[in-house]
Amino acid sequence: MKALRTLIVAAAMAAATLVSPFASAHATLKGSNPEAGATLAAAPKDITLTFNEKIEEAFSTITIADGQGKEVTAGKAKVDTTNPAILRLDVPALAAGSYTVTWAVAGHDGHRRKGDFKFTVK
Question: Mind listing the domains of the chain with CATH numbers?
Answer without folding.
Answer: 26-121 (2.60.40.1220)
